UniProtKB/TrEMBL annotation, chains A, B, C, D, E, F:
Subunit structure: Homohexameric ring arranged as a trimer of dimers.
Catalytic activity: tRNA(n+1) + phosphate = tRNA(n) + a ribonucleoside 5'-diphosphate
The species this protein was found in: Pseudaquabacterium terrae
Name recorded for this polypeptide: Ribonuclease PH
Keywords, ordered alphabetically: Nucleotidyltransferase, RNA-binding, rRNA processing, Transferase, tRNA processing, tRNA-binding
Domain Exoribonuclease phosphorolytic intervals: 15-144, 162-227
Transmembrane segments: none
Amino-acid positions noted as binding phosphate in the UniProt annotation, renumbered to this chain: R90, G128, T129, R130
Cited PROSITE patterns: RIBONUCLEASE_PH
GO molecular function, one term: tRNA nucleotidyltransferase activity
Record InterPro entries: ExoRNase_PH_dom1 (IPR001247), ExoRNase_PH_dom2 (IPR015847), ExoRNase_PH_dom2_sf (IPR036345), PNPase/RNase_PH_dom_sf (IPR027408), Ribosomal_Su5_D2-typ_SF (IPR020568), RNase_PH (IPR050080), RNase_PH_bac-type (IPR002381), RNase_PH_CS (IPR018336)
Amino acid sequence: MSEFKRAGNRAADALRPIVIQRGFTRHAEGSVLVCFGETRVLCTASVEEKVPPHKRGSGEGWVTAEYGMLPRATHTRGDREAARGKQSGRTQEIQRLIGRSLRCVFDLAALGERSILIDCDVLQADGGTRTAAITGAWVAAQDAVNWLIGQGLLTKSPIKEPVAAVSVGIVEGTPLLDLEYTEDAACDTDMNVVMTGSGGFVEVQGTAEGASFTRSEMDALLALADKGIRELVQAQAAALALPLPR
Amino acid sequence: MSEFKRAGNRAADALRPIVIQRGFTRHAEGSVLVCFGETRVLCTASVEEKVPPHKRGSGEGWVTAEYGMLPRATHTRGDREAARGKQSGRTQEIQRLIGRSLRCVFDLAALGERSILIDCDVLQADGGTRTAAITGAWVAAQDAVNWLIGQGLLTKSPIKEPVAAVSVGIVEGTPLLDLEYTEDAACDTDMNVVMTGSGGFVEVQGTAEGASFTRSEMDALLALADKGIRELVQAQAAALALPLPR
Amino acid sequence: MSEFKRAGNRAADALRPIVIQRGFTRHAEGSVLVCFGETRVLCTASVEEKVPPHKRGSGEGWVTAEYGMLPRATHTRGDREAARGKQSGRTQEIQRLIGRSLRCVFDLAALGERSILIDCDVLQADGGTRTAAITGAWVAAQDAVNWLIGQGLLTKSPIKEPVAAVSVGIVEGTPLLDLEYTEDAACDTDMNVVMTGSGGFVEVQGTAEGASFTRSEMDALLALADKGIRELVQAQAAALALPLPR
Amino acid sequence: MSEFKRAGNRAADALRPIVIQRGFTRHAEGSVLVCFGETRVLCTASVEEKVPPHKRGSGEGWVTAEYGMLPRATHTRGDREAARGKQSGRTQEIQRLIGRSLRCVFDLAALGERSILIDCDVLQADGGTRTAAITGAWVAAQDAVNWLIGQGLLTKSPIKEPVAAVSVGIVEGTPLLDLEYTEDAACDTDMNVVMTGSGGFVEVQGTAEGASFTRSEMDALLALADKGIRELVQAQAAALALPLPR
Amino acid sequence: MSEFKRAGNRAADALRPIVIQRGFTRHAEGSVLVCFGETRVLCTASVEEKVPPHKRGSGEGWVTAEYGMLPRATHTRGDREAARGKQSGRTQEIQRLIGRSLRCVFDLAALGERSILIDCDVLQADGGTRTAAITGAWVAAQDAVNWLIGQGLLTKSPIKEPVAAVSVGIVEGTPLLDLEYTEDAACDTDMNVVMTGSGGFVEVQGTAEGASFTRSEMDALLALADKGIRELVQAQAAALALPLPR
Amino acid sequence: MSEFKRAGNRAADALRPIVIQRGFTRHAEGSVLVCFGETRVLCTASVEEKVPPHKRGSGEGWVTAEYGMLPRATHTRGDREAARGKQSGRTQEIQRLIGRSLRCVFDLAALGERSILIDCDVLQADGGTRTAAITGAWVAAQDAVNWLIGQGLLTKSPIKEPVAAVSVGIVEGTPLLDLEYTEDAACDTDMNVVMTGSGGFVEVQGTAEGASFTRSEMDALLALADKGIRELVQAQAAALALPLPR
């Protein structure tokens, strides 16, 4: 079978151009604009000196996330969820995923009884908004932790290691890394993979669209994801190596 | 490491007792009580001669699902979602999963422009409610298809093959099949796997709780799931081989 | 006028077959499946060691109820109230009725500052769901009280006497006891009557459908209800005389 | 037992002063301020040339009601239901009762495929708001029918006879007619009775508060209600005999 | 340009007949029916011995308002906001305006840590409901303050001066004072002006409908509003000079 | 009185640095990031070939707006309105204002039966979000109109002239143009003024915070606003004179 031809001659195993811009807005303790190609997500991390009820008095902190998409982030304008009066199932599913992924690399006891809330708002969507959100959210959380240390509220980081995410999928028989929107719409199987900097799996969510997929297809996709996440973790580190703007 | 000891001396790779009782209620076109041990889910399939807006005029049908849990299905009474005025993110995530899983084995064109709605209501919960729901929902859908054929509304089945689901997880280092509640609460990694009768993957959702998991752990879990699903598909076939009560 | 002919040759003054199955689910302090013919309602009683705001600090307890119907409990699938985001007026009216009926036979001071929440969920509907719910709810509440006594949390029962409920109505001129769905749909007048074991009235709710009803019709209906409730109270006692399953 | 002493030396079987003022506001097709003593309810009847979905194409009309209470109609300010975002169970129960009561005296076929919507808004509450509302709503509906006849949209009235309502209850052993707020709060049993001008029952809703009530108590209450409703029907007729203001 | 001819030969700079009836209902600490011609708004002031969270512990009180319109206050029946489950943007805008206007003439420290809640409910609408509401709300607030003084809860009034409001607009080139509904619907520019008794501006809200308006048009409208508010403040004083009914 | 000293030595009558960046996102027909100093609002204009019900069949189009604020646009994180399930009164008030302001300069008949929806989402807030939103929304609308003309769907522009908005206020006795957050929080009187390119008023909304304001204060503020809006209209024209990025 001939290989699927990607836009801009991108190789099947190549990420889109990754941009991680810290200090994008000024009020949040961490504020990161993350771009996976044309997908752009603003991730802000807010520190609050309180925890949700199930953590009160535990001495442990909490990390959680909310996700939203501006109505015209997409080709066709979507309803504003605030106007409709509820978040869609998709929105809730994604924000739960982001929260779990972040918590997996956090030592909640070391965070102390406070919360970090990550807001991931999609300014422009072109596939992979949830994986970009997780990748950017970790950098925003890192900046919020740095702020806590800078304020003397923490002496050491409660973050155990990096976490990043990428989508993979099979389009016309070809396994591809980091799907853009048109690829996502055309794919038979797609998988979102969340991994730590040390290569452990945090989440694997594979879904057949149409036909089911085989074990060897899954293996091919996991290998691609592993490659992509290594590169994303490098991009996170590079962004954090720069001085924070302002 | 010594192996984790399961309740009732259950083997690590054993399902709980599976009961699939068809014709449990009488109004629905398909009505199945499915039990994975103490987890009991009532799955009803309702045929409606209309489709949602995105399918109107397409000549294709639709299969969708809703999920609910009775307030005292659990150890501690949960809020009634109807009284609270909204479905939780967890509920929406599960019902979307059930719907996708069923659609994957349906030929929607062969169904014709009508809908099958699956309601999965948990009467008693002891872990694995979503996997039991998928497994039972497929049998209820099969009975609804049989009803459509019996009514002369369809001449051949739009169902391509069986679909079933099981949870797997690692508890104290031991990979286990079909987690009950106490195992689920204690596990480090858990994974819900949805597969077709022919062994294809429909959904793989693995989540690290606490520590991330390795590739070899994932392989062990997928092998367990494969075994469990083969047995569940046999149980579905056995239930369907009996005459429908009433 | 010739008498209305009931399904299955049931006499005008006969109840449908009554089944009261205790211990139907295992987590609740009381769990009863009650069947009035094909109407089947699961009633669970949950004990909570707190009371609503208007009872705090009063030394008195509270008994309340919630009611729901599975979407396909009925001939035609109804909307799921949790998905629609609110309970219908009918649902609220019924759950208020169940709560009032139970409280009428409870000594709330003797219960102590704790709550019993009764959930009545209709698995299958064929008329009389609210009367079956009240009749079953009382048995579930009794089991919850027995559990409280068994736990040493109460030394004597705060339940003063039994309470049960039945519907009566006039169909084609014939007064009937315990209406099933087709009778309910056809009736001119229907009445729900809630009475105590000692024959006192707790609630009488008579409604004309179409034409108004006369005083002598009301008297005939009240006499039928009285007969039915005596039999239901016997059925409750018989169910409670058996050992609790498990 | 000595008889309960009512405020203002009112006799046990006496209504409060009844005022039925037509043409209270000017936009509605019928607009009536009804006062049962200090209880004041504004009832407006609006004609709409359409029917709800279940009546479309039936050739029949519909009559329905909505009920509300101004936040400070009561001694203590209540929440505004519009601000809270939902109607209470009590509100829904009352508006369903008003609608059923009105429909019972309407020939819906003679009304033609149009609706009469009755809004009952309590300006001041002192017990008996639902019975005042029904009594006033019928007069407002009558004025709306007169308007339809005046417009040439109907040639004869679809109203078969009057309907009115009153509360009765037992306070300290004394059966009382038309309870005001302090009596309502103190009563052991209260009953709302809706009857037609010809003496037929439309609704009987008796509720024990505290102890259950006996058959002879019910008989005493029904006799009182019958007397009260005869007087209310006379008051309705007297109000309608006057020329409509403006 | 020939001058626009108003209904009833009203002069361009004349208010409609103003009625301010205190003590309209009996439970509220202040209760005023205010009529600007056919516009009738019931304003009640309720005293509560608590403040919203942002004022707790401040030693200062709070004054706020809610606004509603009976469904048939208007020519065509509007939806009941409580039934629809939310207040419209218009409703919220108006109640925020009323609250701000009242607070502007209140010394919140002198009020002490308690709240005055003003409910403004439109019984009949004919243009200018918000300006009538503000004008009447101030009188109701004054009566509530008098009640507080009468109860010994305050020794001097926290109200610094009167506040009143009026609408002005340009219809067919003619600047008009106090628009009624048909004028409001026809106007090119309309402005709501809230002023204190001493002639200070509290709110000025001018809106072009269709074409924008010029500075000289604004000046003409402000002069008209100033005249109208002087007269409204006199009407408020006259109403307060009478003894409170009851 | 000595003059209030502004941050960065800004003159009392000076705007903050204004940036109007077109083509900020790529899916919308018009997409503008507008910055008034640190206030940054993303305004997108979406064309839809349908109109709301009240315009159907009229031959006229519609222009409307929605407004939102990212949760961490502000110093302290605010609730996400989509999660809370409703838009605040403030949000609704602002989006109604933006819609009215735009419609005032649109010839809706010339637009044809289609809609332009403006989404104004605040990425970072530092006072004046609504005035920045209006100013940017007009540019986005202009780009959407250019797109319609480019597509051959319109032959001439339905936009009659520019519209822009600015805030003015009095802080410590000094009238200031274009308030930033700290000034807004400290001001005694603030006013939002919307004007057309030709100097007509579209909206004037002045509010006293604390003390009322005088006529001469209003005149001073209106003069400042006039100056600011002239400059904003020049900035709009300058932005539109550049080629659209992409």
